[in-house]
Amino acid sequence: MMGKVESQSDLLQRLHCQAQNRRQFVGWGAGGLGAFFMNTAYAAQQPATSSGLTFKRDPSTPLSVLPPQFPAKVKRVIYLHMGGAPSQLELFDHKPTLSRFNGHDCPQSFLKGKRFAFIRGVPKMLGPMFPFHQTGKNGTWISDRLPHTERLIDDLCLIKSMKTDQFNHAPAQLLVQTGDARTGHASLGSWVTYGLGSENQNLPGFIVLASSGPGPTANAGKPLWGSGFLPSVYQGVECRSAGEPVLYLNNPHDVSRTQRRHVLDAVDEINRQTHAEFGNPETVARIAQYELAFRMQVEATEAMDIRREPAAVLARYGAEPGKNSYANNCVVARRLAERGVRFIQLYHWGWDSHGSPTDEGINIGFVNRCRETDQPTAALLADLKSRGLLEDTLVIWGGEFGRTPMEDNHGGSNEISKYIGRDHHTAAFTIWMTGGGVKSGMVYGETDDMGYEVVKDPVEVRDLHATILYLLGFDYQKLNYPYQGLDQKLTGVKPARVVSEILT
Amino acid sequence: MVGSFAGTRRVSASAYFSGVAMATLLGIAAAMFLRPAFGHTVLQLVGLETVPQAAPGSFYTVRVAPLFEAHCISCHGGERQKAELRLDSFAAVMRGGKHGAVITPNIAKDSSLFTRITLPATDDRAMPPSGKTPLSKDDVTVIRLWIAAGASGTLPVKAIKGAPALVVPVKMPELDLAAVQRQRAPLANEVSRLQGRFPGVIHYDSRSSADLEIDASLKGAAFGDSDLKALLPLRDRIVSANLSGTGVTDASAPLLASMKSLRVLRLMNTKTTDATVAALASSKRLKVLAVAKATPAALAPLRQRGVRVYEDVDVR
Amino acid sequence: MSDSPVIHEIPHVRVWDAPTRLFHWAIVILIFVSWLSADRGLMTIHLCSGLTLLALLLFRIGWGIVGSATARFSDFLHPPRKVAAYLKGLASGDKQLYAGHNPAGGLMVVAMIAILLAQAVTGLFANDGLHFTGPLALLVSDDASTWVTKLHGTIFNVILLFVWCHVVAVGFYMFVKGDNLVKAMFTGKKPHTHVPADIQVSFARSYVAFLLLLLVLTVGGVAWFIIQGGALL
Question: Which residue of A has its CA nearest to B215?
């Protein structure tokens, strides 16, 4: 390569293939074309970070396990994202004062200077729609909507003081999942698999399973589990719990596994030659991904086949093989946890309880969402616990923001009781966490009597991220990736805090 | 004859130097009067005043001193002493600075330290000044309670009621790669050899330690007693072993029991029995145990010790 | 013979040139200005007086090479043995006459210039922990700047000590030896009985002083410009 005289067209072709590394090329322009030729392209994809932590791996095994920075409390994460934002005032945040103000006009102090997604004018206050009671060893308040989860309340750590600054679904979901309200950033699962790899080399390290209520929910789509600026091999793989785990994973009708192997060998050889010639690191990643897909044909099919579970187990979850449901996804999640998958993410859409249409009504759609998720979530937790997996698994449950103590008078309409719903609320929402390193039976943070503002122990989204990374064995400042002149971090540029009070 | 010299009288050397000594002492005395903080320093230095000390378990040491350290001593400590005030020791805090004492015991509103930290952020004289991490409301409450209780250096933590809960921020451990290399050196060759032989099974538990984790669960029945025996050289460093679903049997019990650093052991879905559980009675560090079939009686001693035990529920 | 003391006009000999005298008193004023401005947090004044001090010190060092005889280092710098011998002679009351600085005084001068120079230089890199930094602080790390600031504070105490030593020593000469050094540093003249007989002090030309001052200010100005990154451009 060094001695060859390159024609103009060859050079252009090379530059085209190096398109992904164009930024680096321009950067090295000062060093001349010699520097460009001398560069080892793969090394460029694993730039040195300022923290001293390197994540260099053999390019053919990009998901190989790397140890965390310091001893971790958990080895894997199961993130249950309730898309659309479940109402904390109907589940966990008990506000008797709000009941007394039900139907009253919302005070100006709550409206002045604030922007709402749909509320216009002066809405009415909406008291909690379901009764609350105390439960568990510590008398934790909870509504009657989660009878199964309630039985495990002493294992959970509720955080009632989450705060965000995004009041629309897609940016808020992106903030919670990628640390930034705009697209282009790496998701939590990508950061975790980038930092730690995954134990099972025959399955993706980051698997996403989605289910939904009947109606659509505004969502940010695939960027929520995208790899952003991290190498694309760390993106989440969306699998299905009914039918083929990954579409087009299996061979076509008359193609045997052996034939597939021959095809792959040929494709691999061509890719290897391409890599030798052009040095594009994505080629190596592509080879690795084809190999992973080949191994997945066997292992993923087995891992995601919930029919292999005894009927009693499926009944515990409320799972029905053949349907794509949250319950089925929970069974799969447990199986994947047992099989060394690093980051398992479940999305259940449909929690956006504005009140219109009926599926979004708190008295209708919301009830259904609770019913769809309560039993499977509790069964998943119970199974993880009985297998001793909760010792080193972190389970997180939550949405992207909260819901307002005021009724959502969509566009200013005040028709009584036609729209029973709440608008998006950024100032406070509730999530819970459980697993290794997290205190059990704890309630952290408080909102005011109306459930509007956080008055004690606020937790920003970046603080939650810092805490998750800490439990996984990383200093959130040291797990970074240089991109666009900045050492990018999941927690972003603002200072974050590990919430030490909820840690054991 | 030589005339007298314009303006100066002659005195003897001894008279002069005695005069200098007296003037110097008077000067120091004046400085001590004008700057009480300096006065205290001098008196404490010559032993005419006892240096106030704070007791280790006192409210001051546990709650107040860390606040000063985190928010104040960069300008009021060893490197800089703005307004001649130091806040890096109990004696210094009680001594005060250029404008006198900053703490009036029992009366927070007369203590300039307290008034300065409760000024609105827009006030030029607010402490800490803008640009530095401000004290939280809880922090200010802690200081107020301390002054109100007498600004003591010995009053125990529990004696002051109503203080906000102490939040201990997590300390991220520093990564000293060279030290870690040294710790890993003795077994480094064995570790790489065995990692080559059993890919994906042996990992260091973190980048900052030489401890090892074994995870053979994905190998299934292919990983058995003889394979575990091959890991013998590493046994003292193994802190966690996941052998669930492997071919390991009771024959490995002595080896497992001899892993003196073992904290987590998983044996679900293996052919191990009470025999292995009994052998583990001697594992001092064991915190978590996941077993295959075992009787409650065999597990009782471990449970009594506080080991968290998980038993096989459904077979995979 | 009359007993009434008659004060005759004693012939005086010129020993100190104007630049040396101006330098000395300017330093005295600037030390106080620097001290008081730092004490009251008037950092801009502190910076100006510090920079002026630095310029004057650099001038004095240059003047110590090209200036009048009594201003030159070669005139009053003596090996330690000579200084020890001089001090012994002082204690036993020997008559030792010098036109300019005596060996002990010469040591004081050098020590004072050195310590003041150290103070000025450390000041360039120091910071006050808030918003004020010395002009060269941007060239070093924050930690280094803080360490230098601490040094700046310690050296101040050393300066106080040196000033005390200097005042006590001058007082000794004035009240014990009857040698009015303060007046001499003002007028530039000493009584001829206090200087060696037939002494001839050669004085440098005034324009040399002006040129030297100009050189110092130019070099300083250019350095300032470069450090500030040509900010005015």
Answer: A199
**Measured distance CA(B67)–CA(B61) in Å, rounded:** 10
- Which residue from B minimizes the CA distance to C130? B131
- In a domain? residue A62: no
Of B211, B215, B268, the CB nearest to A387: B268
**How far off is chain C from B43, nearest CA to CA, in Å?**
19
User: Domain range spanning residue A122?
Assistant: 76-245+306-458
Q: Select the residue of C5, C172, C180 nearest B6 (Cβ to Cβ).
A: C180
Q: State whether A210 and A222 are in the same domain.
A: yes
Domains, chain B, in order of start with CATH, read 16-46 (no CATH), 59-159 (no CATH), 177-311 (3.80.10.10)
pLDDT score for C230: 55
Range with the poorest average pLDDT among A24-28, B172-176, B307-311: A24-28
State which of A418, A440, A458 marks the end of a domain: A458
Question: How confident is the model over A404-411, as a mean pLDDT?
Answer: 83
| Minimum distance, in Å, between the CA of residue C55 and any CA atom of chain B | 27
Question: Is C176's CB within 8 Å of B11's CB?
Answer: yes
C176:B74 CB<8 A: no
pLDDT at A3: 43
**Out of C7, C146, C174, whose CB is closest to B8?**
C174
Q: Would an 8 Å CB–CB cutoff place B306 in contact with chain A? A: no
Q: Residue B75: closest CA among chain C residues belongs to which residue?
A: C129
How large a percentage of chain B has pLDDT more than 70? Answer: 96
**Could you read off the pLDDT of B30-40 as tens digits, one per residue?**
999 988 888 99
Q: Any CB–CB contact under 8 A between B79 and chain C?
A: yes
In this prediction, residue A42 has a pLDDT band, given cuts at 50, 70 and 90, of very low
Lowest mean pLDDT among B208-222, B237-251, C209-223: C209-223
| Average pLDDT of span A129-151 | 96
A22, pLDDT greater than 50: no
DSSP of chain B, one letter per residue?
-PPPPSS-----HHHHHHHHHHHHHHHHHHHHHH-HHHHHHHHHHHTSSPPP---TTBHIIIIIHHHHHHHTTTTBSSS-BGGG---SSHHHHHH-BTTB-S--TT-GGG-HHHHHHTS-TTSTT-SSPTTSPPPPHHHHHHHHHHHHTT--SSSBGGGSTTPPPP--PPPPPP--HHHHHHHHHHHHHHHHHHHHHSTTTEEES-TT---EEEE-GGGGGGSBHHHHHHTGGGGGGEEEEE-TTSB--GGGHHHHHT-TT--EEE-TTSS--HHHHHHGGG-TT--EEEESS--HHHHHHHHHHT-EEEE--S--
A366 in the same domain as A292: no
The predicted pLDDT at position A41 comes to: 42
Q: Kindly provide the ipTM of the predicted complex, given to two decimals.
A: 0.83
Q: Which of A56-65, A301-310, B52-61, B179-188 has the lowest mean pLDDT?
A: A56-65
Identity of the highest mean pLDDT range in A380-384, C10-14, C39-43: A380-384
Query: How much is the pLDDT for A14?
Result: 53
Tally of structural domains, chain A: 3
Of A68, A383, A500, the CB nearest to B169: A500
Same-domain pairing of A421 and A351: yes
Q: Report the CATH superfamily, name and number, of domain C12-227.
A: Transmembrane di-heme cytochromes, Chain C (1.20.950.20)
Shared domain for A337 and A325, answered yes or no, is yes
Chain A residue numbers with beta carbons less than 8 Å from the beta carbon of B207 are 53, 67-70
